[in-house]
Amino acid sequence: MTPSATYRPASRVAADAVFMDRALDLAERGIALASPNPMVGAVLVRDGRVIGEGFHTYDGVRHAEVIALEAAGESARGATLYINLEPCCHMGRTGPCTQALISAGVARVVASMPDPNPAVAGRGFQQLRAAGIAVSIGLRDAEARRLNEAFSCWIVSRKPLVTLKSALTLDGQLVLPQPKKNARMGARMSQKDRWISSPQSRAEVQRMRHAVDALVTGIGTVLADDPLLSDRTGLPRRRKLLRVVLDSRLRLPLRSNLVRSADGDVLAFTRAKENAPVARSLRRAGVEVVSLAGRGSNLDLRMVIAELGRRELLSVILESGAILNSAALAAGIVDKMRVFFSPKVAGLVGDEPGANSASTRLRPMQELKNVTIEPFGPDFAVEGYLHDVYRTH
Hints:
- The protein is an alpha/beta fold.
- Helices cover 28% and strands 21% of the residues.
- A hairpin with a 2-residue loop joins strand 1 (41-46) and strand 2 (49-55).
């Protein structure tokens, strides 16, 4: 519906659903623009007509409720506010939105979910009710929680929501086999020819990259594929996608696509000394190098995630090979998985990274919760959760 339209359905329940859907649509406009704040959309309605609306962006500072109130002016008195997240009641970069709503004379607030921020956590609703404003909570709760799951995870644990993304053939291969070059076959297979997933799946992966703050991969993937790992949607974002390489021995090539395209958006975690010659060379090329502790030759993945959370990165996508994927799952840092299955059979791939070996240790089976399946062209994606995003890791 258009903001200027008047909507008079058969019941108030139906009207509430329509206007809350509008608030959620507005909130989604904050993707890649609101972090490290939550995505919030607000709609003010009076007599079935939208009189003000807004959504939050971090650089815009003002909260969605305030933008909607400013658009409505004096018409806000007696109006109903539809919002996907509880209005804030504390002083941050802005004043409390609850006080703005009370002062404007809003009569009713319909909210999808409480704010998981411990500084709010229901107190906003209490203030509104104490001022005589009717409050209704829970409409489109599932949609609202999913929209801000990364914020919910970070605000409680101070660690980002980690999503492991992978693509597999039906027989469980991460990559199609690379035939050896010989006179009969000619040149080796190109990376494009080795893609497992369909164009539709790859477009969805770009959308996933656009929606997160950082992408993490391993040095093995960089050395094997020389990827760019960028957000190629062309959509606006407040800060660049941070491309993170886990590189314990600091083997990141200076001529790699990652280094050559670095512009303050490539970070290498290593066990090597930060003043090593290769570290200095990478820094001159625009790569940030951070030395972390670990065991043996491996980085401590929990420390990696904690450092990304310290930088106020709410969401991370892990795009790597079998070895790092397995290590991340074993370390318990993965909150969510999304696996794209292609209707292809690769056949046995000998000596591939992550293949079974005598050194492989059996670990307890982990089960995904809240599993969904979605088609993308000929492929399908299975998504589910390993952790409750509200709990600490």
